[in-house]
Specification:
The complex is a heterotrimer. By secondary structure, chain B is mainly alpha-helical. Chain B has 17 helices and no strands. Chain B starts with a helix and ends with a helix. The chains are: A mainly alpha, B mainly alpha, C alpha+beta.
């Protein structure tokens, strides 16, 4: 177990190094840099001033030196300075993390809360009309662009209720009700897609389990249907759902980009897009590394949990 | 987007998998019969196939089907509701929405198909070779795939298209990159399963060259999972293209893509002229819906574990 | 007429009288409430689309900085925030109590207000004024240097700034320039504190203005709070202002409609969506006004193809300006030339002259002439002219460019579209790395000097098309020095026609603003330049 963990960690580290190279190179390939951006609102770029600022922030150094410097600082826990805000990158990034995290977790909660019961219902009533209805609805959920869904939600709220959630971030410590209200709708927009996936996987896992002998035995013993499903079947369907959540997480963060913009939540994803457009290398690079660490960590956690929950895997 | 997980419960543990379709591929009558059988067994899947075929038909015959030049603007007729002249109305520049939808099918499907194929073929080859070779080559290839997969798909596509600039080939590349690791993983795991099967052992002992074994004997047997993957990824590629276009990083004008038609300006006219967002939105959803239906049915038919259970 | 007619008439008159009385009874309190003395207090909820690139007005050229930062500073003079028009008659003093021209229009003397304090408690003096404009004009030996200096050209004719005493500043000019006073009245000309390093002003604000910066939550909102020591007693009325940064335009309007915002963002220029909100919430106030912003098409004069005047004219003719108004701006624009057209503009061309400009008259005729010109230049059906149009990768510009491309297609020009990311756009224009470009230009005051030097003079960095004509340069100088208003107007109009005919920068038209605010917001009067009316000193909330 320990060697397994160590290898996984080592591999994860190597992956991170590789990823740092990819993102570093991609950002340098992109045309333009922060200095062009600084001059953008002035409407022209003054070459002398450009050279001066380029030197000041160290962009005149050879690429390899810049890369080495970044990695060195990163290892020492120094994320550098945001070019755009002239503040330590960490100070700029930190307040945004809990917002995206809350949205991601809430979206997952929405996904599970919608997906699992629908999946159970659909499996138990296999091939009846309700099963078809749920399956088609879930496919429809998968077919809707999430940016579109967010927009539809916000426009319908304002046209139907004349109300929309707060547009400045409300901390849960300040007012948890307002906070929940603010996050519920974006979580719905992001989570709907995942809920469709969860429904499908719950359904197929449950169908598989429901054919097993011990379920038949349980039925034969006269246990009530929902008791059987709850006690025996659902527990087995839990594993695939968990795996799915691990994989979905990376995707979910991608989905946040547009949703955070539409609902005006000052989260990591929206900030990342902005930083990409601003060529704010320190912020982009470190943020991407941060997301990668979370994603890799999440996958690792899921694998470990999987092993812990499933004896077959644990012993293998 | 959708497919990443759809395949995940399929590969790892799939047993020896001998694809009958490859062997009998030449027999046209039997192909037709099989399609018919598929339609009868999987009406929803067939419906999905029909949707995709219709869209393909639209894409290919855009010149004949369109009633107007899709880029012709008519300032005097902006935001016209659907009428006999403009079947689905006009947009804010006075362009005919129906004709743009028809041409948009071409762009959206072409970008979707091209990026899916590019990604799956590249990923498939990597998966095939690394799965067959095993050892350190496999390890390196897999770590490389990890790197590509660790990044959220949309974020990666975003950085890519910022780096490469928006143009049709660049958008295709940007969307295809995130598909590579998914394809590689799925193909690799089915290769791993087939590699140890008796007939491959036999081929090896007969002294057939490795590359030949990989491409002639193993590759045909991965067609099933490959097809499942491709249909699943097609839908997701269409959605990513739409999201990129929405963010202004997708296929540039004058090519009318469905995502572009749903752009931010379109959203602003939504309450005054709902048709300008309704129809492209429906087109995207329908196309993705179709690929999902087909993908589901294909998986049921081609996934050996499920097939066994059905028989 | 029947005998009863007279009685009926009388009844009608009585009814009218009673009605009028009743109406008066209802109207009077409402009118009285409307003109009631301003109520102090309250926080104004404002918005903007992008975070300001920095908070330093002198280093930026975007409304995203001027709009939220203007309340923090004062000018010497300002266009009266309560009047819509911007001209010499509507100037009011801010830090200057009075001003006068001497020396045949070559010296401008300001008497300054006394006892004004900076937000950090230091005393304001003439030295700060000298410092500010020495820095901006990059005078030899200037005490500091701006990182980016977008408006250096405005102050080119200042030869020296003198401070005979702490209450007096004298601007000495190398030649008469009546426009200087108007440029000083723009929101872009705040007085900076000499004792605060320029770099610090990028992230904080030390001004003399009616509001102080309380907090800037990066990318989220900017909070301003009332300056209790403001130089004018009893102002500002508001306790504070919050500028919420909302990236999505439809979200911004949804927020306004839902009452989470009190006012819209200037320069949205969104007719359809603003009218939609007005329709949904009839009590909301919609103010339509012209703006000092034009949409234009740039031809890169460095490219050999555009050395051919026939090609330039053909393109100029090909774009139907009325079509642009409808398609490009949904009817929310007016056709015009180089200067904001009459009647909204003081300098631009009137209807009569505009009709003579290429692309304004009958579209069919214009297209026919364009095709002839192209044929004469050697292009036609067999050998179409192929060009590339660049524009910013944002919905509005891409749509406008699509329209332009289609217009060109109708005269046989095959144009392709290149989308350029916002951040790289001006760098590209600066390098003149484009063939044709769809762009727009927002101007500070409606003033020929502010416009012509920047956008049309040889070698100006923002003369993106690199149009260069020494004769035109000379005429620009001549009008600038002309003190007689009528004479100067005539000169400017001649220049306007000439520049448009030569295709120096093909003006498509001037956009209109559709500013929205809830009825309880008082004393906020949108001007035609969004960069000049954001002081918020007089604004109050009737809640």
């Amino acid at each position: 177990m320990r060697t397994y963990l160590l290898t996984r960690l080592l591999i994860g580290l190597l992956t991170l190094v590789g990823m740092s190279l990819v993102i570093f190179v991609l950002m340098r390939i992109a045309p333009g840099d922060i200095v062009d951006m600084i001059f953008a609102s002035a409407g022209y770029v003054d070459p002398a001033a450009k050279a001066e600022i380029t030197k000041e922030i160290g962009l005149d150094q050879p690429i390899a030196v810049q890369y080495g410097r970044w990695l060195r600082d990163l290892v020492q826990g120094d994320l550098g300075k945001s070019y755009r805000y002239d503040l330590p990158a960490w100070q700029v990034i930190r307040p945004r993390i809990p917002i995206s995290l809350e949205l991601a977790l809430l979206s997952m909660a929405v996904a599970v809360a919608l997906g699992v019961p629908a999946g159970v219902l659909s499996a138990v009533r296999q091939d009846r009309s309700i099963d078809y209805l749920i399956r088609i609805l879930s496919l429809a959920g998968l077919s809707m662009p999430s940016f579109w869904l967010g927009m539809v939600i916000i426009l319908s709220l304002v046209w139907l209720l004349g109300w929309i959630p707060s547009l400045t971030y409300v901390s849960p410590l300040e007012d948890w009700k307002a906070n929940l209200l603010q996050f519920l709708f974006p979580a719905l927009a992001v989570g709907l897609r995942s809920s469709a996936l969860i429904m499908r996987i719950t359904r197929s896992a449950l169908l598989e389990v429901l054919r097993e002998d011990y379920i038949r035995t349980a039925y034969a013993k006269g246990q009530r249907e929902w008791v059987v499903i709850w006690r025996h079947a659902l527990r087995n369907a839990f594993l695939p759902v968990l795996t799915l959540l691990g994989i979905e997480f990376a995707f979910l963060i991608g989905g946040l980009v547009v949703t955070e913009t539409v609902f005006n939540l000052p989260g990591v994803a929206r900030f990342l897009v902005e930083a990409i457009l601003w060529r704010d290398y320190p912020v982009v690079q470190n943020l991407v590394m941060f997301i990668a660490i979370i994603v890799i960590g999440m996958n690792l956690a899921v694998d470990l949990l999987y092993g812990w929950l499933d004896p077959r895997v644990r012993h293998a | 987007m959708a497919g990443s997980t759809r395949g995940c419960d399929m590969p790892e543990r799939s047993g020896a998998f001998v694809c009958a379709s490859a062997r009998r591929a030449g027999d046209r009558a039997s192909v037709l019969r099989r399609i018919l059988r598929f339609c009868r067994a999987k009406p929803l899947g067939a419906a999905g196939g029909a949707i995709i075929l219709t869209m393909l038909f639209m894409a290919l015959g855009a010149e004949e089907l369109a009633t107007h030049d899709p880029v012709r603007t008519e300032p005097a007729r902006t935001l016209d509701p659907p009428s006999a002249q403009h079947w689905l109305g006009t947009d804010y520049l006075g362009r005919d929405i129906y004709s743009r939808l028809v041409y948009g099918a071409r762009v959206s499907l072409a970008v979707g198909l091209a990026s899916t194929l590019l990604g799956s073929v590249l990923g498939g080859v990597i998966g095939l070779l690394s799965g067959y070779a095993g050892g350190s080559a496999d390890l390196v290839a897999q770590r490389f795939m990890d790197i590509l997969q660790g990044l959220p798909l949309l974020v990666l596509a975003l950085v890519m298209s910022a780096a490469l600039g928006p143009s049709v080939p660049n958008v295709v590349v940007a969307i295809s990159v995130p598909i590579i690791p998914r394809a590689a993983r799925i193909i690799r795991s089915s290769v791993l399963a087939i590699r140890e099967s008796p007939y491959i052992e036999a081929a090896r002992s007969l002294g057939v060259r490795h590359l030949r074994i990989a491409f002639r004997h193993i590759l045909p047997n991965t067609i099933g999972p490959f097809m499942v993957l491709t249909t699943a990824q097609l839908g997701s590629a269409i959605l990513v293209e739409a999201a990129l276009s929405f963010l202004g990083l997708g296929v540039p004008e004058p090519f009318p893509s469905w995502g572009r038609m749903l752009s931010i300006s379109a959203a602003e006219y939504a309450h005054k002229a709902p048709w300008i967002v309704l129809f492209p939105g429906a087109a995207i959803s329908l196309a993705v819906f179709g690929t999902n239906l087909l993908g589901d049915a294909l998986r049921d038919v081609l996934d050996p574990r499920l097939r066994q259970r059905m028989s | 007429m029947r005998p009863t007619g007279e009685r009926a008439n009388a009844a009608r008159i009585w009814l009218a009288v009673w009605g009028a009385l009743l109406g008066l009874l209802i109207w009077a309190p409402a009118a009285w409430a409307g003109s009631a003395s301003p109520k102090p207090g309250g926080i104004l909820s404002a918005t903007q689309s992008d975070p300001p690139p920095s908070l330093s007005i002198h280093e930026e050229g975007t409304v995203a900085t001027v709009w939220p930062m203007m309340p923090c500073y004062n000018n010497l003079v300002l266009f009266d925030p309560l009047k819509r028009a911007e001209n010499e008659q509507t100037l009011i003093g801010e830090l200057a109590e009075s001003w006068r021209w001497d020396d045949g229009g070559k010296a401008l003397t300001f008497r300054l207000r006394k006892g004004v304090k900076w937000h950090d408690g230091q005393l304001f003096s003439a030295q700060d004024v000298k410092y500010t404009f020495d820095v901006v004009r990059e005078a030899p030996g200037a005490p500091a240097k701006l990182r980016v200096n977008p408006r250096k050209l405005w102050y080119e004719n200042i030869a020296a700034i003198e401070t005979p005493d702490p209450g007096t500043v004298v601007f000495r000019l190398s030649r008469p320039q009546p426009s200087l006073l108007l440029m000083l009245a723009a929101g872009y000309s705040p007085i900076y504190p000499a004792h605060v390093p320029l770099a610090e002003l990028r992230t904080k604000c030390v001004g003399t203005g009616p509001f102080k910066l309380k907090e800037y939550r990066l990318g989220e909102y900017i909070d301003l709070v009332k300056n209790p020591d403001y130089m004018i007693k009893g102002r500002p009325y508001l306790d504070g202002i919050r500028y919420v940064i909302i990236k999505e335009r439809s979200t911004r309007y949804a927020a306004l409609q839902a009452g989470r915002l009190d006012i819209s963002y200037p320069l949205e220029l969104a007719k359809t969506i603003a009218q939609g909100v007005k329709q949904a919430v009839p009590q909301i106030v919609l103010i339509e006004s012209s703006t000092n912003l034009n949409d234009n098409l740039l031809l890169n004069f460095k490219r050999p193809i555009f050395a051919d005047a026939r090609v330039r004219r053909a393109i100029n003719l090909a774009i139907d300006r009325k079509g642009y108004v409808q398609a490009g701006r949904q009817g929310g624009a007016t056709v015009g030339g180089v200067m904001l057209p009459k009647p909204s503009g003081a300098w631009g061309l009137g209807e009569k002259d505009l009709v003579k400009l290429p692309g304004v008259g009958d579209a069919t005729k214009n297209r026919a002439e364009a095709k002839q010109l192209l044929a004469a230049a050697g292009y036609g059906p067999g050998k179409p002219l192929k060009l590339a149009v660049s524009t910013r990768a944002s919905s509005f510009f891409v749509d406008l460019a699509s329209f332009i491309i289609d217009q060109l297609k109708q005269v046989g020009i095959e144009a392709s579209l290149e989308q350029v990311e916002m951040g790289v756009w001006h760098a590209k224009l600066t390098r003149r790395d484009y063939e044709m470009a769809v762009n727009n230009t927002g101007m500070g005051p409606d003033d020929p000097d502010a416009n012509l030097y920047e956008n049309y003079k040889c070698g100006s960095p923002r003369n993106y098309s690199d149009y260069c004509n020494p004769e035109v340069d000379r005429l620009i100088d001549v009008q600038s020095q002309t003190v007689d208003l009528a004479k100067r107007q005539k000169l400017v109009q001649e220049l306007d026609v000439r520049l448009q005919l030569e295709g120096a920068r093909i003006i498509l038209g001037w956009a209109q603003e559709y500013f929205l605010m809830w009825p309880y917001v008082k004393n906020l009067v949108p001007h035609q330049s969004a960069y000049n009316y954001g002081r918020m000193q007089e604004v109050w909330l009737d809640k």
